[in-house]
Transporter substrate-binding domain-containing protein (Arcobacter roscoffensis), 277 residues
Amino acid sequence: MKSIKKLLVAIFAISAFASVSSFADDINLWKKSTLNQILQRGELQVCLEPGYMPFEMKDKRGRIIGYDVDMAKRMAKEMGVKLSLKPTAWDGIIAALVTGKCDIIMSGMTITQQRNLKINFADPYVVVGQTIMMKKELQGKIKSAKDLDKPEYTVVTKLGVTGEVATRKFFKNAKIITFETEADAASEVLNGKADAIVYDQPYNILFMSDKGKGRLVHLDTPLTYEPLGWAIRKGDPDFLNWLNNFLRQVKEDKVVDFYNKLNQKWLKDTDWLKRVQ
């Protein structure tokens, strides 16, 4: 009987120790969580490249505006902290996140398996695809990417983005040229130095409503499926959980209707173009 009591005491002691140890581990994980660091700092630090309309760009006064900026402001408000936008070159934006120069990437980043090897993504907040804008002279002659994939045609896109990946996938015979910015690539087509550009559908739609109107033709059937997501460092379930819950709330809250108003403001209306021209 005494041996059974001793065994029960030992089991209870081990169980209690395990519970305390588990609780201590949970506390340590919370302290290391980016979300906790944001709350302690009182500031949400967001990496973005201000050159991707309508998600992030600079207005006439040099202020960064756009879809992602409004979403980041809402996010910071829900956290009860200040917002700090950190303009970052696209080719170094993942490194900036991984090395702790910001808490999150909110920059119209497409979720890909390759990027997911280095960083984690929250659930998609917008789904886009790559489409083609081409010279007006090609209207009727070119009806698909296949028609454009010939040696006599030059196709441009932005360097280091999913637009480049799609361009190299769909065009094996056409000449491909990449540019540092989407604006430079689009200008190449406008100026007649290239035949077409492959880039994200929202950007192309807006470009066609402004500079491309009457001058270019938009083949608006997406070549790809590309969900956009916010990127965070790996090993941070607390922050990921908060972000997904935040996104679910803003999408489903029909009273405030923030998400639908945001989409209307930046993805459907074009009034904001006056602020950046």
